[in-house]
Design a protein that fits this description.
The complex is a heterotrimer of chains A (about 375), B (about 300) and C (about 350). With about 300 residues, chain B is mainly α. Helix content of chain B is about 70%, strand content about 0%. Chain B is built from 12 helices and 2 strands, in the order H-E-E-H-H-H-H-H-H-H-H-H-H-H. With about 350 residues, chain C is an alpha+beta fold. Chain C is globular, with a radius of gyration of 24 Å. The chains are: A alpha+beta (about 375), B mainly alpha (about 300), C alpha+beta (about 350). Chains in contact: A-B, A-C, B-C.
Chain lengths: ~375, ~300, ~350
């Protein structure tokens, strides 16, 4: 178990990490999700002990690790770049942490072969890393982290430099392999889709702060604030400005959107509704849907789905539709939203109403 | 960047601190001490105040030596920097030529200072030196022991021979770090050879050039051994640089007070020029990097 | 703007290639129509970058000819081909201002100052960097730098084609959406011939009118995103495009039915009896696998269900072969689910190649 209590990191007057408290369980997969420069790498360096926090504590299994050097901590790290010993064979690369730990002959061989087998490296054990493909190089680095048997395994965008399909493969294998080892597994990524595919638990990072931490799918469905919702949305979250008076919301063009029972309790005023691109429809999805006018910017077609970028009431939105919808540029179309998919944010960006979307979806099934 | 707090670290750096104290701080303080006193040998000292400094700053001998030093430093910078860049640009980027060129370039740097001096002293001699004999047989009146111009030329060529390699190696390191895509983009943009140099290669060499200029300035401003071995400061005082003058004063005449004052002034001049170079070059062509962590 | 023809192009990095294995690019015949948006898609080492470098002139092909509008440019230098290229890592001239970066290609070609000014301002407006025109290019963000790279191509009026070499690699996901849609818009507006190299299927499919899928130095399929999705010509295309990729199940063909173990699924077109195939497979996208209650379809063993937000991925197996299904939001998964294949979307592959009607 790894615990961060009120950890902050200030460099030259700039807050790189602000008051982060996290509790990561052994055998758990924890995703740090956030854009570049949001503090993912800094946070990992603090967890590893490569940097010291300016405030707060880092505890491993209840023991205060603040100030303990990296070498005394039980940590393995995998980076975005493929980092291996270039002159050593794959076998010796994987064996290196064992050699450092002073493991004896036959044991080394057994563990190296087991890790190589898991990472599908057995045929390449005699090669040097530079004679391997990118995917195999990264597998070697991961095998080295695996064989170390560390209590804390940190991975900083490990798949970012790999081909799409290789990523898919490794993303599938990694959580399984490390959950078996019982380590605290931390994985940083910029891609919301990757976080969802990995599952586990997710902490969303924004400007050095953890905006939310919880089960990945729960953070995705029930973000506590607009920052979390935006960080965890790919394609980007669609936002709609609303004014509430009485039992209804109004858009800027006067369209009325009835409020739910929960929403009716909110004080009158300005709100923002956020909804995900697959909840913006080109065809009326049901009786309750509200129609809004939009102008198409561009349509992208992937074969199975279409992304329609459009402008609606001065908001730039993306609609994700199944099938092929090649709508011409600058076409005026009607789009539909369903208030049941809305997350309502107040002026300060806090989520004030969100109807446990999952439950509503399950009911309609 | 802050690191783990560990008091053991102080023990590790202690030897270096002691070493620096003995080799730099204490001698410097001694020099400061001497600079304000007059001594008559047998450990008798009298307070002299700023007398030595006044004398020094108004002395023609000092002005001349300083002037010679400045001319020398700027001349060799004006030759070595462009020449170094030029050679670095001509060096191959890959293949068997790379190690060959690097070794060739490193050779002059491996020769000790006094040996460099001796080599050129012999090389330039009119009677047995290849260079001296050859030039004179061409009808050029070359004799560095009698002609100040010849002496200067010898000292400058010698320094260029010795130190251009350093600039070459620094620039080369900067050049090989440029990704191939930059050259490709420049070709696509129709950039001339000059534009490629001006907008791609020079900016990438900027930081190493800064180091190169600083090192070469400081080194050439403090030059002693090579000209001393070749010309001994002559003919006349024509190649007597500050350091040679200083040694004459301190060792030859045993004027400890004036020599100490001169050392201090010398030290401050080098510090001042280095700072000026650093500031100018750091501000030319680049904005401060506010976006640390990017790239 | 120009039509680009690749005529029997082959390339080897070896001086004397002997066997086909020595070629990084096996024989390629392709036409990029004037004003089209094309993507070269494949994993690393498939020859896509080699092909791009041949078009840009950074590489001269070992064999074959490259034609711009019917005229051979095989021997022409990069500068003379009038192409523009955006690289994987942003290439900007650090010491120049944004304005000067854009003016650079024009000034190099001796364009009069007034015209340069007018063109540069036009492009600054289009790539949305007007407010930063006077800034040094050095301090900009990665996406702004990529826009400058692109702008240097747009600013020239004689550009034959714009080439992109994985231009979004260093861009954050949120910015990718913005840049992609701007790029698409620009393409519609200017009508440049664009060739986009990537390993990312989403980028390739959303950008291009036609995608060229490459594998092992060869072109496997050229088609619209829709064609690649519904009718992959080769099982590799089925696997490579789509996430997760197409399910491929070994089968035996019996008239218009495919037999997978003890079960049968209907096919739209059967095997040509005249052709002998050593290996026959059924291919179906996870998107087209519907789940039925027990007894309705083919028995399916469920290994895992991944909730990825807007849908769930059911990872299962049938007759010992992996079978994935995508379950849309709002649909439930029955207790003991079975798999139902949509016959119209069920493809038959003989020796890994698609069996199509009349073939």
């Amino acid at each position: 178990m790894l615990e961060l209590r009120g950890v902050s990191k200030t460099v030259g007057g700039m807050d790189h990490i602000r008051d982060v408290s996290l509790r990561l369980e052994s055998g758990s997969l924890n995703v740090l999700l956030g854009p570049t420069l949001s503090g993912k790498t800094t946070l990992m360096r603090l967890m590893a002990g490569l940097d010291t926090s300016t405030a707060g504590q880092v505890l491993a299994n209840g023991q205060d690790m603040t100030g303990v050097s990296v070498r005394k901590r039980d940590v393995a790290m995998v980076y975005q770049q493929f980092i291996n010993y270039p002159t050593l064979t794959v076998y010796e690369n994987i064996a290196s942490p064992l050699r450092v730990a002073g493991v004896k002959g036959a044991d080394v061989d057994k563990q190296v072969r087991k890790a190589a087998d898991l990472m599908k490296l057995t045929p390449y054990l005699d090669r040097t890393p530079l004679n391997l493909s990118g995917g195999q190089q990264q597998r070697t680095a991961i095998a080295r982290a695996l064989v170390k048997g560390a209590h804390l395994v940190l991975m900083d965008e490990p798949l970012a430099n790999l081909d799409y399909k290789l990523r898919e493969e490794l993303r599938d294998e990694l959580p399984k392999i490390f959950s078996e080892s019982g380590a605290v597994f931390v994985y940083a990524t910029t891609e919301p889709t990757e976080a969802l595919l990995l599952g586990g638990r997710t902490a969303t990072l924004h400007e050095g702060q953890v905006s939310q931490f919880g089960d990945t799918i729960d953070v995705y469905r029930n973000p506590q604030d607009i920052i979390t919702a935006q960080t965890f949305s790919d394609p980007p979250l669609n936002l709609l400005g609303l004014t509430k008076s009485g039992g209804e919301f109004r858009t800027s063009n006067g369209t009325v959107i009835p409020a739910s029972e929960e929403e009716k309790r909110l004080p009158d005023g300005h709100y923002k509704a956020g909804f995900r691109p697959h909840h913006l429809y080109l065809n009326r999805p049901g009786e309750d849907a509200v129609c809004l006018p939009a102008v198409v910017d561009v349509s992208e077609i992937t074969g199975s789905e279409s992304f329609i970028h459009l402008t609606c009431l001065n908001h730039r939105w993306v609609a994700l539709e199944h099938g092929i919808h090649n709508v011409g540029v600058d076409a005026m179309i009607d789009v539909y939203v369903d208030a049941r998919n809305f997350m309502i944010f107040d002026d300060e960006g806090r989520t004030v109403a969100s109807l446990m979307k999952a439950s509503h979806i399950a009911e309609t099934a | 960047m802050e690191k783990t707090v560990n008091n053991k670290a102080w023990f590790m750096v202690l030897p270096v601190l002691v070493l620096v104290a003995f080799t730099a701080v204490i001698p410097l303080m001694t020099v400061v001490n001497y600079a304000f006193q007059d001594s008559f040998g047998n450990n008798q000292f009298f307070w002299a105040g700023i007398e030595w400094f006044q004398e020094l700053l108004s002395s023609e001998r000092f002005h001349d030596a300083l002037g010679r030093n400045l001319i020398f430093s700027f001349t060799i910078l004006a030759i070595e920097i462009p020449l170094g860049i030029g050679i670095a640009l001509c060096m191959p980027k890959k293949g068997w030529g790379v190690p060959v060129c690097l070794v060739l370039m490193a050779l002059p740097l491996l020769v000790p200072w006094n040996v460099v001096g001796t080599i050129w002293q012999v090389f330039g001699r009119v009677d047995i030196g290849l260079l001296g004999y050859f030039l004179n047989s061409l009808g050029i009146n070359y004799n560095y022991t009698q002609d100040p111009v010849a002496a200067w030329a010898t000292v400058i060529v010698m320094d260029v021979w010795h130190w251009t390699s350093l600039v070459v190696l620094l620039c080369y390191a900067g050049l090989v770090s440029i990704p191939e895509a930059y050259y490709q983009a420049a070709r696509i943009d129709g950039a001339s050879r000059w534009a490629v140099f001006r907008y791609i290669q020079l900016p990438k060499m900027h930081s190493v050039l800064l180091i190169g200029v600083l090192l070469r300035f400081m080194d050439s401003f403090m030059i002693y051994t090579e000209p001393f071995v070749v010309t001994g400061g002559g003919p006349g005082n024509s190649t007597t640089f500050l350091s040679i003058d200083l040694v004459k004063m301190a060792i030859g005449q045993f004027d400890l007070g004036p020599a100490a004052a001169m050392s201090l002034v010398y030290f401050l001049i080098i510090l001042l020029f280095s700072w000026v170079f650093y500031t100018i070059m750091n501000n030319v062509g680049t904005e401060k990097k506010h976006y640390a962590g990017e790239e | 703007m120009a039509r680009i023809d690749l005529d029997h192009i082959r390339h080897s990095y070896l001086p004397n290639p002997a066997s086909p294995g020595d070629y990084a690019l096996k024989e390629v015949n392709l036409t990029f129509e004037d004003g089209g948006a094309y993507a070269l898609l494949g994993s690393s080492g498939c020859g896509k970058t080699t092909l791009l470098n041949i078009i840009s002139g950074l590489l001269t092909p070992s064999e074959g000819e490259l034609l711009f509008d019917g005229k051979s440019v095989t021997e022409l230098s990069t500068e003379a081909r009038n192409i523009a290229q955006v690289f994987q890592f942003p290439v900007v001239y650090d010491t120049m201002s944004v304005y000067d970066n854009l003016a650079f290609p024009l000034r190099n070609r001796g364009v009069p100052a007034a015209e340069v000014d007018q063109k540069v301002h036009e492009i600054l407006r289009i790539i949305d960097l007007e407010s930063k025109a006077k800034r040094k290019a050095q301090g900009l963000t990665a996406d702004e730098k990529q826009k400058i790279s692109l702008g240097r191509g747009l600013v020239r009026s004689d550009t034959n084609a714009i080439l992109f070499d994985e231009p979004l690699t260093v861009i954050d996901p949120h910015m990718k959406w913005v840049l992609r849609s701007q790029l698409k818009h620009l393409h519609k507006q200017f009508g440049f011939t664009m060739v986009y190299v990537t390993h990312d299927q989403t980028e390739a499919l959303t950008f291009a009118d036609k995608v060229v899928v490459m594998y092992g130095g060869e072109v496997v399929q050229i088609g619209t995103p829709d064609e690649l999705f519904r009718k992959p010509q080769h099982t590799f295309v089925g696997y490579f495009i789509g996430s997760p990729g197409m399910n491929v199940l070994p089968c035996e063909v019996d008239g218009s039915m495919a037999r997978i173990g003890e079960h049968s699924v209907p096919l739209v077109c059967g095997l040509n009896p005249k052709k002998v195939a050593r290996k026959t497979e059924v291919g179906i996208r996870p998107e087209f696998v519907k789940l039925g209650a027990a007894g309705e379809g083919l028995p399916l063993k469920v290994n895992a269900v991944e909730d990825i937000g807007r849908c769930r991925i059911l990872r299962g197996e049938m007759e010992g072969v992996a079978l994935n299904a995508i379950v849309g939001e709002g649909l439930s998964i029955p207790e003991n689910p079975t798999a139902l294949f949509d016959p119209a979307q069920t493809n038959l592959y003989a020796d890994s190649w698609l069996v199509s009607e009349g073939a």
